Amino acid sequence: MRRGSRVRWRTLGLGLALCALLAPLLDCGPPRTTRSGDAPAAPAPPPLRRVILANPSSGAGAPFFVAQDVGTFARHGLDVEVLPLNGLKSLEAVTARRAEYGILSSRTVVDVDLAGGELVMLAGITPTVAFAIYGAPSVGAVADLRGKAIGVSYAGSGADFAVRQALRRYGMEPERDYRLAFTGSSAKSLAALEQGKIQAAVLAPPTTANARKAGMREVLDVAGLGIDYVIGALTSTRGFVAAEPDTNRRFLKGMLEGIHYAKTNPTATKQIMARYLETVDDDVLEESYVSFVERLLPRLPLVSLRSVELVLDELAGPGQRPASPETFVDNSPLAELEASGFVRKLWGE
Fold this sequence. Notes:
alpha/beta, D-Maltodextrin-Binding Protein, domain 2, 15 helices, 45% helix, globular, 5-stranded mixed β-sheet
């Protein structure tokens, strides 16, 4: 072998040795092979956007309970916490920006906004007054309510509005024909009724089931009157909706899927409701499901503008409305989802 050839082979050998030593750093070794089933590691998904829903502890929260439990919200990139708060605490949480959403009555939203607030109703989860008037065993008919004290949660609440509207159909007005007693909650109204402090109470499911067990009598099914009034409106602030329209859209998609699941899977839905409502009482769960899901929950819960007109007329009188109904409602996000075919596809239509 010629001398030049030996030099070339020595140089090549030295180069291969150096490459072997430095391969981890320089990646100059032979091409790497991958097994046929290997694939590049997928990037980690973005963290879920945490959202809080302030919800009175009732069956009105059913579509949100199931959407979180079965993973609907997670599929839309959200981690939703449902806080079981009474009406006033739900209102405080939303207005103080401690919660992105709350379930409030249309009367509450109107009152707050007329006082300078920025609440907006996005969906009518419970589009009529889901109440009944229960009385002591001695109160058997609507006429027996004359001169009696009737318990409602608080002034301006859905229960307050419901009893005024319902008894007006029977020619009865508060203070003139009956007295309202503000108790703080539906459960406290029932307790006052049992203790004899009041003679009747405006109750919502599932407290109605407990009232019957306590020997109270249903005097009037207010929900059956079909009063156009949104007792349970999904509510947020205009600031949040404007700042995070995509989060809001994803939340509404999760809600719509939750509505579909709740209405088509009653047994599983009642099991989920049992955890959120913290009860194993079958009567209470059945009453809550039938009232809030089967009977009242719409497939597409647009907020009725007529229901807001009714509230404004109650406050100021017909023809003297202080603002237009549209001031308090934003149906556009839900309307856009409907126009996109999202709802029709969900229901297989």
